[in-house]
Amino acid sequence: MDLIRSQQRTGFGNFVKAASIVPINDLKGAKSGRFADKEQLVRCKLASCYRLVDLCGWSHSIFNHITARIENGGDDHFLINPFGLLYNEITASSLHKVDLTGRIIDQGTSEFGVNKAGFVLHSIIYQARSDINFIIHVHTAASVAVSALKCGLLPLCQEAIRCGNVSYHDYQGMYIEDKSDLVTNLGPVNK
């Protein structure tokens, strides 16, 4: 009964109290055959990351997104959540695989579409930076507060220093019209 009981989430300390109904790895066995071994592993890790973000209270309903690049023999594909599933509902099989043009390569088990704003932002970053394989986009109170400061993230503690150089891009609406502006602001090595 504990597995289906809903829990109150109050922040980062709820790992012990957390309950999840839907398994993260729902790919039907270690070697399902539907996905290459490497993709299957990335799918499970990404679904786990969605659950972790949710357990920490960092999800913002259905309006954030976490993606992971999939190495596919030279083709640029990445996994993104179906637009409409809550973070605690995302599984390895429900993730969409898309290419950089927005074409859905694999719909997964969900009938939902792709969040256009999330796709646009992440596809620009993946296209510009081949060294980036994973992107987390959240609206936590702390990240919103830091982004509102003119000085941005200050190197005042070990955690901030570990971030390295951080890029800033002024909000220009949900859909980015000028991709080159975002690429320039991101820079060649910033996080």
UniProtKB/TrEMBL annotation:
GO terms for molecular function: actin filament binding. It comes from the Eukaryota. InterPro entries: Aldolase-II_Adducin_sf, Aldolase_II/adducin_N, Aldolase_II/adducin_N_sf. Residues 44-189 form the Class II aldolase/adducin N-terminal domain. GO terms for cellular component: cytoskeleton; plasma membrane; postsynaptic density. Belongs to the aldolase class II family. Adducin subfamily. This is Class II aldolase/adducin N-terminal domain-containing protein. It comes from Candidula unifasciata. The lineage of its organism: Eukaryota, Metazoa, Spiralia, Lophotrochozoa, Mollusca.
